[in-house]
Design goal:
The chain is built from 15 helices and five strands. β3, α7 and β4 form a beta-alpha-beta unit. It is globular. The relative contact order is 0.11. The protein is of the alpha/beta class. The chain has two domains: 177 residues, P-loop containing nucleotide triphosphate hydrolases (Rossmann fold), CATH 3.40.50; 100 residues, no CATH class. Strands 2-3-4-1-5 form a five-stranded parallel sheet, with helices on both faces.
Amino acid sequence: MKPARPPDETQHRSAPPASTPAVAPWLRQQRTDLLAQRGHAWLLHGPSGLGQYDLALELVRAWLCERPGEQGACGTCASCHAIDVRTHADLCVLLPETSMLALGWPLDEKAQAEVDDKKRKPSREIRVEAMRDAVEFVQRTSARGRGKAVLVYPAERMNHISANALLKTLEEPPGNVRFVLATGAAHLLLPTIRSRCMGHPMAWPAQHEAAAWLATHAGIAQDDIAVLLAAAGGRPDEALRMAQAGRTARSWSALPAAMVRGDVTAVSDWSPADLIDALQKLCHDLVTAGSGAAPRFFAATDLAGTAGIDALLRWGRKLQDSARIAEHPLNGGLMLEALVAQAKSTLNSRP
């Protein structure tokens, strides 16, 4: 995409944040360590939900800051303000349009007009047109004189054409441009892209750090934190997303029994992708418990059903197949009903 332009009243998108949120404690040391190293391209990788986007944004803020320190950007200069309001001329962000809108980054004029006129839905991939704009962006002179930066997230959302366009730029980067790619699925990236970046595996936060960070966010009840962190596999960003989607400790704990009953109303506000993710976790925990180990995502007392391990493994393979089309279902409501019916049939089967 082209450098961000100021939003106007005709653009329907999330407003940029009024102020920069505090950096999560487990990201601060990673930020310091990365800023102390040299390199024109970084690949932040690890399971999604560990703060890849936040850390990537912290890096580009520091790279472009007028008064950077060991701990990152100053947060008060004109450059930092320009990033806060999504208008920095020397920063190019490459995100799926759905993520752009959710995070307050403006689409370019053509893309915004197409979405506003309902000619198409916002893309869930990083579009080829945006990548071409980025390639043109890196060839231009820096507007503020501190170089330029390109942020790509989630990098696995580049299609083959977009990835190859980026690869050519990474192979012969202009001297004043730095790149940071962030991903929760590095194995989906071209090996040639991975080899041209310095890799950084994301650090996992301690449970007390993650819980304390979640407690600072409005809209998540204290009683829900431990359960949602477990439901998210210990990934704080994912736990926060679940809370923002309306998940609570009570609704999560009640999910296994609801699936045994075939209760579609319990998940009527879920997306197919979210339900598949939850059912895969339920399947995992039932297999784990059936093997004599402790479940990971649900409390042992919440697990329900009579299915044997063979039936659960077959169900797990079906859920993997469903996950491939979860973001593009022909009918989301019908897919939810089919998933619940499948879960009920499996969970009530006999070993």
